[in-house]
Amino acid sequence: DAGVTQSPTHLIKTRGQHVTLRCSPISGHKSVSWYQQVLGQGPQFIFQYYEKEERGRGNFPDRFSARQFPNYSSELNVNALLLGDSALYLCASSLGGAAKNIQYFGAGTRLSVL
Amino acid sequence: QKEVEQNSGPLSVPEGAIASLNCTYSDRVSQSFFWYRQYSGKSPELIMSIYSNGDKEDGRFTAQLNKASQYVSLLIRDSQPSDSATYLCASHRSGDKVIFGPGTSLSVIP
């Protein structure tokens, strides 16, 4: 079975641009969460979606938005990129609902903002 | 106060020794706890999950949970150089997000 897949793997953008990151969860998983990981720190929660509805939002500016599609895949959008947005963006999927929320991570998208 | 705290390390142990990684959390309502391993430049991979007080063993790994002390630990027996990585502790309460600690860097010296 395929694990969590993320695309693209690497991305280079300039300040002020917009970026879209994509994630496909493990088959059967209905929940997707997005994290930002800066070098030397743990993953910071950005969004969680379950059954296409937003279930949680971390302390990130409105430049960050996300959505989940009927097939449970998800997109993370970041507008007006700043240098500080350079990070590894991780997507994690889980069964969701009443499950104990074991999250399985994709390989991540490394975003560099120049 | 940070929600999940870990010693950043680096923690160095000789090959074959026991590595002990510790984590404390501030939210008493947290129900589920996880240990992830992350190699440099890679994404986190789940090692252990624990939900009840006490010990949980899986091969060379043992997770320990003490909810009264709000403390979670991970023991790695017979440490191998391939165990050298950053270990992330995470907590979760039902209906809420998973919170990760900053990670502890472990180095196993051959």
How would you characterize this protein structure?
With 114 residues, chain A is an all-beta fold. In chain A, 0% of the residues lie in helices and 50% in strands. In chain A, the strands form 2 sheets. In chain A, strands 2, 4, 5, 6, 9, 10 and 11 form a 7-stranded mixed sheet that branches. A 4-stranded antiparallel sheet of chain A has the order 1-3-8-7, with no helix packed on it. In chain A, strand 7 (64-68) and strand 8 form a beta hairpin. The radius of gyration of chain A is 13 Å and the shape is globular. Chain A starts with a strand and ends with a strand. The model of chain B has no long low-confidence stretch (mean pLDDT 92). In chain B, a hairpin with a 5-residue loop joins strand 9 (85-92) and strand 10. Chain B is mostly beta strands. Chain A binds chain B through residues 33, 35, 40-45, 48, 55-56, 58, 88, 90, 92, 98, 100-108, and chain B through 4, 31-32, 34, 36, 42-46, 49, 51, 88, 90, 92, 94-103.
For the residues shown, what is the average pLDDT of chain A? Answer: 93
Q: What gap, in angstroms, lies between the N and C termini of chain B?
A: 37 Å
The sequence of SSEs of chain B as H and E is: EEEEEEEEEEE
SSE pattern of chain A: EEEEEEEEEEE
Q: What structural category arises from helix and sheet content of chain A?
A: mainly beta
Largest sheet of chain A: 7 strands, mixed
